[in-house]
Amino acid sequence: MTDDLPPLVSTDWLAAHLAEPDLVVLDASHHLPAAGRDGAGEFAAGHLPGARFLALGTLYDPASPVPYALPTPEQLAAHLAALGVPAGARIVLYDDSALKSAARAWFMLTASGWEQVAILDGGLSKWRAEGRPLEAGTPQLAPAAPARLHPPARVRSKGEMLANLSSRAAQVVDARGADRVYGTGTDPVHGVPMGRIPESRNLPHSALFNPDGTYLAPEAIRAAFARAGVDLARPIIATCGSGVTASVLLFALHLAGISDAALYDGSWSEWGADPATPKAQGPEA
Is the pTM of this model over 0.90? Predict the structure, then answer.
């Protein structure tokens, strides 16, 4: 029987398990438009042996009023089936993105009921830096039967976030850089005014990594949240620009033993665009 997959795997671990038939490796790289990068082209130029390109940027629900909303269970299942990912497979995700976008794919999958999902610690850059083998080209994939998934759990709506302003039941933590959270101009990514949800805390997702791109140890993750003023004994909702880097906070919390934190999927792209939502802007008082 195959061992359970840990949430974070090293390059050594993956190299030793790469040939196992029930293990699927997915490139979850996703980039902001300003980065000027072509994820599919970069994948074709060089990827981990046997990997498949997830095309994370296409994985959203276009019928939802929420910008870049998580896909429905049917949409996600069909997408994975088209990549030939069989139900019950162990999935290892990696990326080569400043957004650390594998965490968005991890949240999407695990919140929808896929049980064994891991992230490659350090991603493609660490694998490449260690001189490990790469493949080129785009693989031809035989489709699989769609898995049975459920609507994503631990997701909060704008209405729930508005209610939380009154109840203060959960702490809100923003994963964007401090310049976008506390700035006063126009957000360069989403084109809305910079700012934040009132009383939210700021922990930039980039603060949760070592210099080599690997995740901090659990105790260091907990310390980073504490420095940001977050009480880990209380409920947490993560937000960002569009739900991508907020997922990094959620994955880091999972590594630190906290698996009930939630995602505000609409994030600032929804909140900031609504003239009726209360907003805080500028430096903290």
Answer: yes
Can you give the C-alpha Rg of the chain in angstroms? 19
pLDDT tens, residue by residue, 195-222? 999 999 999 999 999 999 999 999 999 9
Active site residues: 240
Residue 216 CB burial class (10 angstroms; 0-12, 13-18, ≥19) = middle
- How do strand 117-120 and strand 236-239 relate by DSSP bridges? unpaired
| Per-residue pLDDT reduced to its tens digit, 105-120 | 999 999 999 999 999 9
Place of tokens 């880097």: 245
Q: Using the structure block, give the residue that is written with the tokens 């080129």.
A: 136
Domains of the chain: 8-129 (3.40.250.10), 155-271 (3.40.250.10)
Residue ranges of E strands in the chain: 8-9, 23-27, 52-53, 90-94, 117-120, 155-156, 171-174, 201-202, 236-239, 262-264
**80-94: buried (b, 16+ CB within 10 Å) or exposed (e) per residue?**
bbebebeeebbbbbb
Other CB atoms closer than 10 Å to residue 137's CB: what's the count?
10
Residues of the chain with pLDDT under 70: 1-3, 285
